[in-house]
Amino acid sequence: MKTKHLFTYDIRPGHLFNIPSCPDNVMFDLTWKCNYRCSFCYIPHDDRKLGHPPWEVTEAILHKLAEWGVREVLYLGGEPVIHPKFDEVIELGSRLGLSQRVVTNASRISSSRANLLAEHDVEVGVSLHSAYASVHNHLTGTRQGFQKATKALDLLVYAGARAFVQYSPTRLDPAGLKKLADFLRSHYSEGVRFIDVNRLLPFGEAAQDKAQVVLDASGWWNVLKIVGELVLSGWTIRVESVPHCWVRDRGSSEGLPNEIVEAVLSTLRPCYMGINQLALSPLGLIKVCPGGPPTAHAILDAKPDQLWKEHPDLVARRVLSFLPQRCLDYRSIKICNYFYDCFGGCRSASGHSSPSFDPLR
Q1: Helix, coil or strand: residue 111
Q2: What is the mean predicted confidence (pLDDT) over 119-140?
């Protein structure tokens, strides 16, 4: 995703970015329902009881996104694949010309479904949280979650689907990324295209079980060092937005080789939320971020381009007022040297030039 055209270098509230006419990527929760009980889920427990939205609503949202000009849709949930019309969603999205991605616990990936996803060139992220079945199953509240996920990867790789693994490190297995990478390489060779590393944040279920699952800053830093080593060994890794200054300062304070620091930095995805990405609830209600609550405005009830440009929550998000002054200071008209590398950073990862800074706070 090329984003330099979004930068204005105009350091005034509301002027930092050229907001495009439509988001490049929409993260669309297909359903509230899930068949797992993950200890780190950001979806409130009561929301899962809402089940599936009416098919007519889902269908209308996809048509609206295509008409609007959205390029890519990422299906989330809940668990998107348990939607009763998931296959129809994929077929419709393909007919509408949407580039489609899905992140799934993979419990419902059959051979025929793997072939369908490959046929429609859907990029499939399988959630796998450890190389150990006991850890993965404990985190997901299942007895066979690990076995189902790895079997699904077998089917997806065999079908020729574009498969990757979505991994969230936890206190139960803080150094597990290296073992997971070794497991994936030995079992799937080049069939798994990359590992997407996501930080767990104390929202939803994770807020109740924070002591067990959520890494502190030191734990997260140790994961990033493993990321750097894996990149140097030939792996493709993608990591959520982390302040570049924090990575550089932490690496410098530990005397970490510069090649590892640069390898870590090469994996970091800038934070696009509200600037080039949009999150939607199953009813098409706008959300400021995937884990946040929906607003009262749905793209089906108004002109989506108008909501995208003028929705007060999105407008407020684009000001980035939550960032520390050393990242962005409107009064002195100064920004951090790494500001556009981080793309402003997400609320949970706002930068601070200090090795002791906790980027998860």
Answers
A1: helix
A2: 96
